[in-house]
Amino acid sequence: MSCAERSDVPEEKLKSVLDVLDERPIVDSALLQLLQWAAGYYHHPIGEVVASALPTALRTGASTQASEECWRITSAGEQACARGEPSRAPKQRQLLQELRTGPRATHELRERLGESWRAAARPLSVRGWIESALVSARDVPDIPSAPQPGPPLNDEQQAAADAIQSGLGRFGAFVLQGVTGSGKTEVYLRAAQRALAEGRTALVLVPEIGLTPQLVGRFRERLAAPMAVLHSGLTEREQLVAWREAFSGRARVVLGTRSAVFAPVSNLGIIIVDEEHDASYKQHDGGFRYSARDLAVMRARGADVPIVLGSATPAIETLHNLESGRYSRLRLTRRATRAAPPRLSLIDLRAHAQSGGLSTPAVQAMAEHLAAGAQVLVFLNRRGYAPTLLCTACGWIAPCAECDARLTVHLAARALRCHHCGADAPLPRRCPQCGFAVKPVGQGTERVEETLTRIFPGVPVVRLDRDVIRRPGELERAMHRIASGEGRIVIGTQMVTKGHDFPNVTLVVVLNADQGLFSADFRAPERLAQTIVQVAGRSGRGERPGEVLVQTEFPEHPLLTGLLAEGYEGFARTALAERRAAAWPPFSRLAAVRGSARTAEAALAFLTEARALAEGAHGVHLLGPVPAAMAKRAGRHHAQLLIESRERGGLHRFLEAWLPRVQSLPSARRVRWALDVDPIELF
Ligand SMILES: [Zn+2]
Ligand SMILES: [Zn+2]
Fold it and tell me: Quick check: is 414 in a domain?
């Protein structure tokens, strides 16, 4: 981590340096500072934090350079090998024989012969039997010749691009708040272009690459600069190649998902975070739980460059930062296509007949839009055929043996699956308890697809969810069927709310808005409002205005009426006021300690002891421990303890003193537990 003149470790315990692997640090000082800050803020060991910033191949010894040392046998070596030499050094002989079959890169030799191959190589090289050379590990593809010109900007886009441009060269956080279809990407592109023109690089974060192929394509075409794309769908080798492109400075644009916030970008000029409200920026399992969006702001601050946070529905935290003047707002209020904003209305499910989850007014509206030659989008955030399998005779409901959850019916796969632990069982025909016939209850996307095919015979339906879209290629094929107009009705989960343009969709039906209205998690309403606005944004992006129908059993709910009357900003104002009154973030700071064990008692006992250690602590409130809302998951019982403080400093001073004591509790070794600072999901 650093160099020192002296050490407190006794001299006989200090180890010697064997080899210097890299000529320059693989983590530069600016990035190292960010990682150290993150280790402190998230109270996580620095070693694991650094490890999470590096691709796997690098952590296991791959070279940072694309060119690799490559060994081959000389003709003298060939002759010696033919004579059976060296006869008394088996490792050397093995190496010689290996090279006789062809040249080998160092990493291949390490894989085949183990770490000791280098010791064997030295005497052979001294005798002139083998030799090495640096070779390029891969050919560098040609850069596209000229950047494609973009469309002219409207005055709002121009004002936003100008503001960001004049902010280059110093830290500043810009919130690019633009309704869906208002052309945020054009503003990103101009800002990135500007930074590139000044000889700097751009770092672009997106929520999920698989769902934003269009964005990646546009950056590639329009900037025509070497680009490295980093995401978790890459193989280890691909990750390494992309990382090297960034590290070597060859890539001028680095675009990636969450962990790309740690990409080794030097000479940084700007950071762009697209869909900054997206929950996937928060790592909320595994050891090191961080927010890539928040770290991106820290990184921009450290590098003294501007950051652009783009969203149609900014997170409540981000809006609070705007209110308090820490961030500046750039607005895009008009859709680039001049389409009118979609009209939102509610359908009271208590007042209308339903068939397969679709109310009569929704079906009528669909028929009208289809008759007018348009496409229709149906949103339901629940995949599978039905969420419940029920026996109507005895009331048995198919449960997951490992979780406090019901199994979801997947009819096409003839399976019952748990969406929480992945359990998979064949679909029973009869009730295991009484032998009566069982029936699926409720709606999933698979069933809604069946219903739509029945109500609108002959109208092609395209379904988008994780059961049908498992590989990136499948998503592109489905998108093509929608874009070409072959698919007339689109039914999908959260997947349809992200990034795609459906210009011919004029009607969006949200089948069930009610899941987010009543939740223990104070963030649930925010997520629901964001989802409704994002999915609504899919409609009417072409010339025709869009219509959005939200089915609900609670049409008087203030969240829904507020959203209807004033849109996301009206909702956000109410939400901020509620958070302020209840002292939830951003008006307080939270950390959660989550524990899980084979028994509920063990998980709770640990958290109770941890809480007892905090007795008398100043400036913090401890809430809990309580079992998680879904206490049993994948065979383990989960519970959590919340720590709340009015201010950040107080929370961190407390955690610093308290965590080491929690770690040394004997019960801490009997449970799996982790700290989550700024948790975004509470349960
Ligand atoms: Zn039964
Ligand atoms: Zn389960």
Answer: no
* Res. 478: pLDDT tops 80: yes
Using an 8 Å Cβ cutoff, are 541 and 502 in contact? Answer: yes
| In a domain? residue 464 | yes
Report which secondary-structure segment, H or E, holds 502. Answer: none
pLDDT greater than 90 at residue 340: no
Q: Separation of 405 CA from ligand 2 center, angstroms?
A: 6
For residue 305, give Cα distances in angstroms to 226, 255, 260, 300: 21, 17, 17, 5
**Residue 608: both structure tokens together:** 């109770």
Q: Let me know whether 178 and 234 are in one domain.
A: yes
Statement to judge: residues 605 and 669 lie in one domain: yes
The H or E element that residue 565 is part of is: helix 558-582
Alpha carbon of 633 to ligand 2 centroid (Å): 6
In-domain check, residue 415? no
> Are 307 and 271 in contact, with CB atoms under 8 Å apart?
yes
Report CA(631)–ligand 2 centroid distance (Å).
11
Instruction: List CB contacts of 508: < 8 A, sequence separation 6 or more.
Output: 342, 376, 377, 378, 379, 535, 536, 538, 539, 546, 547, 548, 549
Q: How far apart are the CA of 439 and the centre of ligand 1, in A?
A: 10
Residues 513 and 466 in one domain: yes
Å from CA of 290 to ligand 2 middle: 26
CA of 288 to the centre of ligand 1 (A): 45
| pLDDT confidence band for 274 (50 / 70 / 90) | very high
- Side by side, the strands of the sheet bearing 505-510 are 343-348, 547-552, 505-510, 375-379, 489-492, 461-464
Q: Does residue 370 share a domain with residue 311?
A: no
Q: Which of 332, 353, 374 is the last residue of a domain?
A: 332
Burial class (CB in 10 A: 0-12, 13-18, 19+), 399: middle
Q: How confident is the model at residue 541 (pLDDT cuts 50, 70, 90)?
A: low
Residues 356 and 297 grouped into a single domain: no
Identify whether the C-beta of residue 202 lies closer than 8 Å to the C-beta of residue 269: yes
Domain count, the chain: 5
- Ligand sitting nearest the alpha carbon of 397: 1
Note the pLDDT of residue 384. 94
Residue 430 falls inside a structural domain: no
The ligand minimizing its distance to the Cα of 389 is: 1
CATH number reported for the structural domain that contains residue 359 in this entry: 3.40.50.300
**How close is the Cα of 397 to the center of ligand 1, in Å?**
8
For the whole model, what pTM was predicted?
Answer: 0.83
In whole angstroms, what is the distance from residue 366 CA to residue 114 CA?
Answer: 65
Whether residue 40 is found in the same domain as residue 162: no
The domain of 648 spans 589-677
